[in-house]
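Lab meeting minutes (informal)
Scribe: AK
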Amino acid sequence: MKKWFPVLACAALLAALSASAADSRVEGKAVTMILKNFTNPFFITVREGGEAAAKEYGIDLTVLAPLKADNNEEQTHMVEQAIVSGADLVIMCPSDTMGIIPAMEKLEEAEIPVINLNTRIGGDRKLAKTFVAIENFECGYESVTRLVNMMGGKGEFIILEGVSGAQTSIDRVKGAHAALEKFPGVKLVAQQPADYNRAKAMDVTQNLLQAHPNVRGIYCCNDEMALGAVEAIAAANKTGQIFVGGSDGNADALKAIRDGKMALTCHTDPYNQGYQSVVAAAMALRGEELPDLFRVSIKVIGKEDL
């Protein structure tokens, strides 16, 4: 019971906050949401959640993302555009945790409040009203624990990281390492970034499988990389021999799990992340106090859960 109490308590708090926010709309306020890209299904779903909440709360929401996925320079330019256009609030999902800090300081100087979404803004100073996200360490920890148990607690293991500098990847990898420490029979033979990209993950996995042909488990920090790993495994005629875990719970990953090509994914509820970021924006625009964290729940999903 101790394990679940913080999650249940936080869920109850979030429900109460959402109910409070629903008491009144925020008419005529302009909010800019800046995401990492529009190529990953995760962020398309985040956008859908944000747009649904904006309609409910009467917010004029503009959703932007770099043309070049996960590009800090483009995100910085979008922040500058938001300042010039007179945005009342910015929801920021940074591609580069530390690289985005100067842009956030510009928003602070312009007295435009910020809601931090999905990936934490770095630095020692608090540059956002709140952080709307899952607990990424928990996602990595729970996913790898279940993945290694599916491996029988032994064998060679690979981790595919996301974009360098992205706190989501950093925290998921930390959680993965913490889980691996519980299994002395598992050997981590490689850890390499694949930039949250399916095609790059396929190339990286092909190379790693040549160097480590006895690998039995691969944990990927998102589903797009996991699906790329699945393609590489199929090309190597190893389908069914290697347990692959991802994160996000997108439709392609769920299908791959049903088909026996992936072992599991961590459902990170992107729709609710987008939705709750706009709920938090509405509360901030009304001058309400916000908690430091709007925590969105996760669930590790394997074939039996479907």
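Next up, CB showed the second protein from the same session:
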Amino acid sequence: MNATPPKAAAPVLFVGALTRDTLYRVADFSRGPGKYIAEGSVSMASGMASNAATAAARLGGAPALWASVGRDALGPALIAEIAAEGVDCSAVRQVPGARSASATIIVDGAGERWVLVDYDAVTQGSPEPGEMPDISAHGAVMVDVRWPAAARIALSAARGLGLPAVLDADVAAKDTLADLSRHASHIVASAAGAAILTDGAGPEAAAGQIAATFGCFACVTDGAAGSFLVEGPDRPVMHIPTPVVEVVDTNGAGDVFHGAFAQALAEGAEPADCIRFASAAAALKCMVLGGRLGAPNRRDTLDLMRATYPAGR
């Protein structure tokens, strides 16, 4: 991959969550119920698709976001914060009488996190006809599982135009994951999401099972254990290790991974290189506290990618 994105690369459309995250750093969160004193905190606009779009922008893309917030005091602030990252937020809808989503996150001394998210069913309800952005203006579509009705519409439209239709298959109800997977050309699942979708299969086996079941590219990410990808049905499983870094905060790493993957895919990179690029971006994010605020730039990502995977290994 090049240090600068190809001029012909069309922007990626990201579809899904936009939330207000408040993150607390607590060195030891293992004592069970009780009071804990935070070492620090940070509040930011966040959400799976929004974090991924931020990553794509910092990696040289010109992404757009289709998300849903309430027409409340919080909604415009969330939109403005993501737009300031260089993400086109003109399609983000504000729903009257609805509540914008929020999350509370605890990050411990090892960088692991606990996430509690509050979504309003009205805010995440089905979009109205005509609300979807023009898919033909984009080079790829990536959706998360937090706004399923919009995700299904966007994936189907992308497939109809022959564009990459990428699903971030994270933890959700199995019916939701299976329904969206049927419309995706590329499924990139967390180990936990893949286990739900495959009734408990481990990451390597799940990658093969997902590719065979849905007839598409499949990748299962497993944190420090690396990623397992299958480029299509009846293809072998490949393993790509995770770069070794000093982990400070894993929150948002999966979102950065998906944003980097979709951006590389839109640029025309080979699927395995897309995963290597995404792995490097996610690893760099883990070195910085603050969720999407740790999304890296393109040069640092390429430097780590090339150092970790010489000759494409």
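CB comment: The CA atoms of residues 94 and 293 lie 24 Å apart.
No objections, moving on.
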